[in-house]
Amino acid sequence: MSTIQSYSYLVAEDESLIRKNLIKKITSLNLPLKLAGEAANGLEAIETTEKNCPDLIITDIRMPQCDGIELASYLKKNHPSVKVIIISGYNDFSYAQSAIRYGVVDYLLKPVTAKSLFESLQKLLITMKSETSALESYCTVNERLSQESICGLMEKYLQENYKQEVFFQEMSERFGFTPEYLGKIFKKRTGETPSKYLTRLRINEAKRLLLHNPDMEVQKVGELSGYPDSAYFSRVFKSCVGIQPSEYRNRT
């Protein structure tokens, strides 16, 4: 007996009452959607997306700190498989339509009615179900590897190649799965994305080289850790560790 595929969604809206009412309306529609979280602004939506990996985000266009267009832009760059529906007032509608370059799948005018919400979500669910079916049928040809096995192979691949330039598209072709599928199951199993795991491997190696090779130039440390660009290496190192590589080496 087959089970109905369900999808997770996040609602980003700075007005608490509107946000709660929108979630209530979605729940009342009895669609295969489960709430992955809610956010009062775009930054909260990004944080929740990184943590819970929703399939769909419904966002207001005007929010403090990070608005709906900025959120859509971030998702297009970092989570291109996540679907986005933008909610806007009449005066913002033309502005909302400009977000088409960020892959926004639909626009809903305020006040959002249950009817318009149902029509939009039902149409989107058909698309998402089709994509899921295609992905599942594609994955079955890959010797039915378990997700755990795939993650283990990905970790081994990154451990063996982190000192070189890693292309995730090339890695996905090597394993026979889409980048989106690999990223999703890797984060589900390990708690972090493949790119974050790769960065961790590289920064840990850089720390080791800095501490045990006091005469080695910082630029060379970066090269041996997988960062041929010394300026980029310093930025990534400081972002992860909090201080520059040279400061880390001389901290004691």
Automatic annotation (TrEMBL):
Gene Ontology molecular function terms on file: DNA-binding transcription factor activity; sequence-specific DNA binding
Signal peptide: none
Entry-annotated residues carrying 4-aspartylphosphate: 60
Keywords: DNA-binding, Phosphoprotein, Transcription, Transcription regulation
Domain named HTH araC/xylS-type: residues: 152-251
One GO-annotated biological process of the protein: phosphorelay signal transduction system
Keyword Phosphoprotein carried by entry: yes
Pfam family, one: HTH_18
Keyword Transcription: yes
Gene3D superfamilies: 3.40.50.2300, Homeodomain-like
Top-rank taxon: Bacteria
Positions of the Response regulatory domain: 8-125
InterPro entries hit by this protein: CheY-like_superfamily (IPR011006), Homeodomain-like_sf (IPR009057), HTH_AraC (IPR018060), Sig_transdc_resp-reg_receiver (IPR001789), Tscrpt_reg_AraC-type_HTH (IPR020449)
PROSITE patterns linked: HTH_ARAC_FAMILY_2 (PS01124), RESPONSE_REGULATORY (PS50110)
Function: May play the central regulatory role in sporulation. It may be an element of the effector pathway responsible for the activation of sporulation genes in response to nutritional stress. Spo0A may act in concert with spo0H (a sigma factor) to control the expression of some genes that are critical to the sporulation process.
Name of protein: Stage 0 sporulation protein A homolog
Lineage: Bacteria, Bacillati, Bacillota, Clostridia, Lachnospirales
